[in-house]
């Protein structure tokens, strides 16, 4: 890409700004702001071997990001934009649902002279990182095509479908990706200043996003389920307080599980997530296989090649076993024993096949570090709410979240008026960027709820790439053990 721009760094920067501006416009209706906090242009040589097979390039870029980039630049998500012509009709590749992990990456081919076309591809691959799958025929898309369509067309997509919106909401609620908690500082942003984006950037006296601080009576973040707590504006801050949830161990789903960090984890939901809507939890006999200590049946995995079987009392906290559902899992490879289906992975740090922490494994017991332990051992919070004096509830930090009008830390003192200025929290992705600073900006649009820090790297192509001519091609999947990877390919243009 650097050579395509006549080895002109300023041209590369301008093109990347145009790409990111389009991505931001696409994500804005989802109340998500894409903050470009890093741009590395490889001007002397590529830092990895960039090859035509997109899967190989993605793996190498992911390793480089973890070994080098993460150590010097804080970010949530990284993408490589390259001038290399990927094999076949592939123009982008990314891991699914891996935000805030070591695989929060993607690779993009600079495949079109129009920056917005490349921006659509980047939006698509970032959508995969955020848990979105390809659109199906049942998805509602008001345009001729949407961002997560399985194939690119000559009509550049500019919006997400109903399915994508639902997938993102489900991903944020279920995964609670912690890396999106903090709003970047102005010195971290490398894009030109934009009035009204809620960030005070170089050259701006202010950037209020919206223009006033909301009263303390305003619920800035309602609770989204029985394991959550609502948060209220404090009246003297422009930020909705940090996210907190009900105390871990509170019964949920009619006593079928216990709350854990704002979620109600159940094997039933985990099986559906892994195998699709018709999947169900497998029999106890299937879970007894966890005593064997194999790659698809174990409790502990100290190294990539070492598998330790479960003790009898812990078998429900080892590998997740399901029945029915789709023929292939959404993540990883799988094995079937009779009707018992389980998944396995080569990388223990990205093993999505274990029963989730916090899942109920017996009466008053939950899974913790792949062991079935009592609630008291797991959370040490049995009598936590007693200290809130009847005017608050204990949250997952073992602190009191007080009712409006009562003061922390024990909710035993009434405020003079209005809401307590105490710590009301919720999901780490919701923000209300407002300010009491005298403002000179005339921008009045609403502020983003979510902020995603993105770092982009630009590679030098070994040869000048050609513009792809769209060809008919079926959707391809690379069956890698690490994770499911999605490739988007162009479709035959409509006449």
Automatic annotation (TrEMBL):
<dbReference type="GO" id="GO:0004222">
    <property type="term" value="F:metalloendopeptidase activity"/>
</dbReference>
<dbReference type="InterPro" id="IPR024079">
    <property type="entry name" value="MetalloPept_cat_dom_sf"/>
</dbReference>
<keyword id="KW-1015">Disulfide bond</keyword>
<dbReference type="GO" id="GO:0046872">
    <property type="term" value="F:metal ion binding"/>
</dbReference>
<dbReference type="Pfam" id="PF08516">
    <property type="entry name" value="ADAM_CR"/>
</dbReference>
<keyword id="KW-0378">Hydrolase</keyword>
<feature type="binding site">
    <location>
        <position position="134"/>
    </location>
    <ligand>
        <name>Zn(2+)</name>
    </ligand>
</feature>
<dbReference type="InterPro" id="IPR000742">
    <property type="entry name" value="EGF"/>
</dbReference>
<feature type="disulfide bond">
    <location>
        <begin position="384"/>
        <end position="394"/>
    </location>
</feature>
<dbReference type="GO" id="GO:0005886">
    <property type="term" value="C:plasma membrane"/>
</dbReference>
<dbReference type="InterPro" id="IPR006586">
    <property type="entry name" value="ADAM_Cys-rich"/>
</dbReference>
<keyword id="KW-1133">Transmembrane helix</keyword>
<dbReference type="Pfam" id="PF07974">
    <property type="entry name" value="EGF_2"/>
</dbReference>
<dbReference type="GO" id="GO:0006508">
    <property type="term" value="P:proteolysis"/>
</dbReference>
<feature type="disulfide bond">
    <location>
        <begin position="402"/>
        <end position="411"/>
    </location>
</feature>
<keyword id="KW-0245">EGF-like domain</keyword>
<keyword id="KW-0862">Zinc</keyword>
<feature type="domain" description="Disintegrin">
    <location>
        <begin position="163"/>
        <end position="248"/>
    </location>
</feature>
<feature type="domain" description="EGF-like">
    <location>
        <begin position="380"/>
        <end position="412"/>
    </location>
</feature>
<keyword id="KW-0812">Transmembrane</keyword>
<dbReference type="InterPro" id="IPR013111">
    <property type="entry name" value="EGF_extracell"/>
</dbReference>
<dbReference type="InterPro" id="IPR034027">
    <property type="entry name" value="Reprolysin_adamalysin"/>
</dbReference>
<feature type="disulfide bond">
    <location>
        <begin position="139"/>
        <end position="163"/>
    </location>
</feature>
<dbReference type="Pfam" id="PF01421">
    <property type="entry name" value="Reprolysin"/>
</dbReference>
<dbReference type="InterPro" id="IPR036436">
    <property type="entry name" value="Disintegrin_dom_sf"/>
</dbReference>
<feature type="disulfide bond">
    <location>
        <begin position="141"/>
        <end position="146"/>
    </location>
</feature>
<feature type="binding site">
    <location>
        <position position="124"/>
    </location>
    <ligand>
        <name>Zn(2+)</name>
    </ligand>
</feature>
<keyword id="KW-0472">Membrane</keyword>
<feature type="binding site">
    <location>
        <position position="128"/>
    </location>
    <ligand>
        <name>Zn(2+)</name>
    </ligand>
</feature>
<dbReference type="InterPro" id="IPR001762">
    <property type="entry name" value="Disintegrin_dom"/>
</dbReference>
<feature type="disulfide bond">
    <location>
        <begin position="220"/>
        <end position="240"/>
    </location>
</feature>
<dbReference type="InterPro" id="IPR001590">
    <property type="entry name" value="Peptidase_M12B"/>
</dbReference>
<keyword id="KW-0479">Metal-binding</keyword>
<feature type="active site">
    <location>
        <position position="125"/>
    </location>
</feature>
<protein>
    <recommendedName>
        <fullName>ADAM metallopeptidase domain 28</fullName>
    </recommendedName>
</protein>
<feature type="domain" description="Peptidase M12B">
    <location>
        <begin position="1"/>
        <end position="184"/>
    </location>
</feature>
């Amino acid at each position: 890409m650097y050579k395509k721009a006549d080895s002109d760094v300023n041209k590369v920067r301008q093109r990347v700004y145009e790409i990111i501006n389009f991505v931001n416009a696409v994500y804005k209706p989802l109340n998500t702001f894409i903050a470009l906090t890093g741009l590395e242009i490889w001007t002397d040589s590529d830092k990895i071997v960039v090859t035509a097979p997109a899967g190989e390039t993605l793996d190498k870029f992911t390793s480089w990001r973890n070994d080098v980039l993460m150590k010097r630049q804080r970010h949530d998500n990284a993408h490589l934009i390259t001038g290399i012509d990927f094999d076949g009709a592939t123009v982008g590749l990314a891991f699914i649902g891996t935000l805030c992990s070591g695989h929060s990456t993607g690779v993009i081919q600079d495949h079109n002279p129009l920056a917005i076309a490349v921006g659509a591809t980047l939006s698509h691959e970032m959508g995969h990182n955020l848990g979105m799958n390809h659109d199906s025929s049942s998805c509602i898309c008001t345009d001729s095509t949407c961002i997560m369509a399985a194939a690119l067309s000559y009509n550049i997509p500019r919006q997400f479908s109903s399915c994508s919106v639902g997938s993102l909401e489900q991903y944020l609620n279920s995964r609670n990706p912690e890396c999106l908690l903090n709003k970047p500082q102005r010195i971290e942003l490398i894009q030109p200043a934009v009035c009204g984006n809620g960030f005070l950037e170089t050259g701006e006296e202010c950037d209020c996003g919206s223009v006033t601080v909301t009263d303390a009576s305003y619920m800035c973040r309602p609770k989204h389920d029985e394991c959550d707590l609502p948060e209220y504006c404090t009246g003297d801050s422009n930020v909705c307080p940090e996210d907190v949830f009900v105390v871990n161990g509170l019964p949920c789903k009619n006593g079928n599980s216990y709350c854990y960090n704002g979620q109600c984890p159940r094997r039933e939901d985990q099986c559906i997530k892994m195998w699709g809507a018709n999947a169900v939890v497998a029999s106890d006999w299937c879970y007894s296989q966890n005593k064997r200590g194999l790659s698809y049946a174990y409790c502990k995995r100290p190294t990539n090649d070492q598998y330790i079987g479960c003790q009898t009392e812990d078998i429900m906290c080892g590998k997740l076993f399901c029945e029915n559902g789709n023929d292939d899992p959404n993540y990883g490879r799988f094995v079937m024993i009779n009707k018992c289906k389980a998944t396995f992975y080569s990388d223990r740090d990205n093993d999505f096949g274990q029963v989730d922490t916090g899942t109920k494994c017996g009466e008053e017991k939950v899974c913790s570090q792949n062991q079935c332990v009592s609630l008291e051992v797991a959370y040490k919070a049995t009598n936590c709410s007693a200290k809130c004096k009847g005017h608050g509830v204990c949250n997952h930090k073992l602190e009191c979240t007080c009712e409006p009008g009562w003061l922390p830390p024990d909710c035993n003192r009434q405020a003079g008026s209005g809401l307590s200025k105490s710590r009301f929290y919720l999901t780490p992705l919701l923000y209300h960027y407002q300010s009491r600073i005298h403002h000179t900006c005339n921008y009045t649009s609403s502020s983003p709820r979510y902020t995603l820090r993105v770092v982009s790297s630009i590679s030098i192509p070994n040869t000048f790439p050609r513009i792809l001519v769209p060809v008919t091609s079926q959707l391809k999947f690379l069956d890698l053990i690490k994770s499911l990877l999605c490739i988007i390919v162009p479709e035959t243009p409509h006449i």
